[in-house]
Amino acid sequence: MNRIHRAGFTGGTLIGAVSVIGLASLLWPFFLTTNTNVNHAHAHDAPFVLLLMVPVLLGLCAIEMSRGGIDARGIAVLGILAACGTALRIPSPGVAGLEPVFFLLVLAGYVYGAPFGFALGGLTLFVSGLATGGVGPWLPFQMLCAGWVGMGAGLIPHPRSRERWVLAAYTAFACLLYGSAMNLWFWPFITGSTSSISYVSGGGWLLNLRHFVVFDVTTSLGFDLPRAIINVVLMALLAAPVLVALRRSLRRTVVQPLPTSGTMEVCDV
User: Fold this and answer.
1) Using CB atoms within 10 A of its CB, is residue 31 exposed (0-12), middle (13-18) or buried (19+)?
2) What is the pLDDT of residues 40-99, one digit of tens each?
3) What is the CATH number of the domain that holds 38?
4) Most buried residue, 123, 182, 202, 216, by CB count within 10 Å?
């Protein structure tokens, strides 16, 4: 079966550029020294990252269409899956770690490929943020981290057996990593400066990494574990029928031509 799993040079450059900017916005506490204030948490860079993410998602879709990587029906599938993901988030948008959207995001990225998964993750979190009123400085980081989850799923080799359990293992890992990455956007601004979980300005990357790990385990694991468990259970129960549906829809989309030869790139799954 055909799998859309390469973004091309321009699309890959877009994803790489926004990922580097996002990583810099998340990882700065380990490399920079500054005074932090909860009232100014990402007040300057979050709008910039959001304004960058939306055009990147639109540009990625346009590039893939222009180079034959995906057709109009593939874009329609992207919109439908984003709507489904939004519906999954509306009943419990992040409450107590109840976020069943990740199992769908992993399956779609796995079937349709890394660029599709990145676009779907970002678009789903953007639309669901608008639908639930969850618009704030956290939104661009949610979009970016969800995009990475979908993109990572698209890079998983397709095993000949135990496919569901490979996906379940990746889902558990991705849900835990998503929670840790999301903690980074606000951690330096809310923990003061004197506790064992505080960001220490000028304290060095190793000290701050140790403080962050303690913060993540003591304050966030109670949210991250339910997220991982719920999505793993959904993966175990629903992966087979959802994979059948996604692969059936993939047969009706245009596969990606190789940019150098114009031949069709095919991957058996």
Assistant:
1) exposed
2) 455 555 566 667 777 777 777 777 666 666 677 888 888 999 999 999 888 765 566 678
3) 1.10.1760.20
4) 123
